[in-house]
Amino acid sequence: MPELTIRTERTDGPGGQAVVVVGGDLDYDSHGRLDDAVGAALDDPPADLVVDLAEVTYCDSCGLRVLLGAHRRATEVGATFVLRGARGQPARALKLTGLDQVFT
Fold first, then answer.
1. Which residues contact 40 (CB under 8 A, 6 or more apart)?
2. In the prediction, which pLDDT does 12 show?
3. Where does the STAS domain lie (predicted)?
4. Yes or no: is domain 20-101 CATH 3.20.20.10?
5. d(CA 95, CA 60)
6. Separation between Cα atoms, residue 74 and residue 47, nearest integer Å
7. What span, in angstroms and rounded, lies between the C-alpha atoms of 62 and 25?
8. 66 with 38: CB under 8 angstroms?
9. What is the enclosing helix (H) or strand (E) of 21?
10. 29 with 41: CB under 8 angstroms?
């Protein structure tokens, strides 16, 4: 199983963006790490929070729950939430649950 990797890239200033780039398996064992990364990115709220799933190979219901929570938390602090790059199994999980219609 590919270990979860997470890195956060920020652009500062008005209209700044926090991009959380995730790779590997986003599942029960690893979802807390993404939750922590999202929380850290929102400590200094950006205009946009982007979660990039292009390198994610697997996402279970725990991972989907973290993504929903990230969406909610971003909205609460006035940031937009963008999910990008989902493909393969993660994209199918989003589509099957209808979450592909929730995230931009």
1. 8
2. 74
3. 7-104
4. no
5. 13
6. 9
7. 11
8. yes
9. strand 17-26
10. no
Q: Which three-class secondary structure state does DSSP give residue 77?
A: coil
pLDDT for 1? 63
Q: What is the mean pLDDT of each run of 10 residues along the chain (104 residues)?
A: 90 84 97 96 90 98 97 95 97 97 87
- Sign of CA pseudo-dihedral 57, 62, 66, 71: positive
User: In angstroms, how far is CA 99 from the centroid of its own chain?
Assistant: 13
Q: Look up residue 77 and give its two tokens.
A: 């602090």
Distance CA 56, CA 24 (A): 5
**How far apart (Å, rounded) are the C-alpha atoms in residues 99 and 47?**
22
| The residue type at 47 | A
**Placement of tokens 């922590």 in the chain:** 36
Residue 12 exposed, middle or buried by CB count within 10 Å (0-12, 13-18, 19+): exposed
